[in-house]
Write the structure tokens for this entry.
Amino acid sequence: MVSKGAAMGSASAKEGWSSRGAFILAAVGAAVGLGNIWRFPALAGESGGGAFVLVYIAFVALLGLPLVLAEITIGRIGQTDAVGSIKEVAKRSQASGGWSAFGGIGAIAAFLILSFYSVVAGWVLYYASVMGGELVAAIGRGDPLGGAFAGESVDQIQSRMGDLFGNPWLLLGMHAGFMGVTWFIVSRGVHAGIEKAATYLMPAFFVLLIGITIYGAFEGNFSEATAFLFTADFSKLTPQVINAALGQALFSLSLGVAGLITYGSYIRRSGGLGGTSATIALADTMVAMVAGLMIFPIVFAAGLDPAGGPTLVFQALPVAFQAMPGGALIGFLFFLLIFVAALTSSISLLEVPTAYGKGEMRWTRFVSASIFALGAFILGIASLLGYNVWAGVSPLGFWSIFEGLDILDTIDGFTGRVMLPLGVMLLSIFIGWKADAKMLQASTGLSNTTFRLWRFLVAWVCPIAVGLVLLFGLFPGLLG
């Protein structure tokens, strides 16, 4: 009799990456998103720069990389969706199939995150269109290298975000447009959709990232930015900063949403996974570093506050683009860059539940992608209405840590504080203690010494560290 896991593996056998390079591009695209371009610079700014960056890099090496390898290995062995792959690994390890629960947590978290991620990406799409209009206007004035928002005051420029939030129909249109693009790519399949998108989008992303960084090095205050990012002031290493760095290291790699398990299941060729996982973690970290070097020279040159938080991207930087040479062009390219980063991540977020629908529910890819994209779109409407029609609604206001949060921030906070760390902790315990060691070593291709070190980190260090993230996320008062 053929096992359910084997049957599921054969059912999905037609889908797979054409090469190791294609998988790496797609996996890096899944990890690189708004968390790198938007959240990392904001956290670095709020947390004092260099000390935060140093701790962040250490956590990526000690925790992020081992967990990336753990997720990919599960998918490689299971050859189906996250839930089915975990069941298969558990079966081969003579462990309970109940461990697949953390795959379910990841799939649900991916669906919930996609719902508001698309709304935020809609803001990016709006600003990209605005900056595109500013570029066209600059060209029309005969000044293609001129600044943006000619003749507008700082208040007028910064009020655009408030105007956007106050217009539910505009927010809905941007949300629908972004979700529609994501659905179209995922519905086309792994090779014709996800891989092809990654093959074009990721090189474009890196060209834009490097190009804008070079621009900032010449036109911005590059020396102050490098000093801010890479000069460590350990007096600023508070428990809050350390916990923020740990959370960012884990979740900027898209850990906990089962994306790398799902992508790992499409690996069809043999070969070690250690180098592939290291490449993904290194690329993600380098993007975060370069993103800081891209944004902060412009911030310092314009006299803006590096601790401006999320508003830094949507309100502060557009002011800088007004005064900078070529500001209209650079502003358009900057938001185009963020759009590409958001799209590659949203593709992986939709692919996780889509693969679940295919593997566990036996739906076709088109049906599964359509159901989950539509569901996430509808849920996202609640998030965008939280900025206008339903302003003041706090769904989990009875819980002190979510008190006063709007709908979008509540979903973001619940997935980030509860679901992701819980899923990652269960992942680390499963791989560190329950999965068969010989099977894991054969799949990862690690040497005996490296394998023992990896298993130790996953079994002991990761559960404790992620457990602290979960604990302090639920009880922030413990940090003082």
Q: What stands out?
A: The first helix runs from residue 4 to 11.
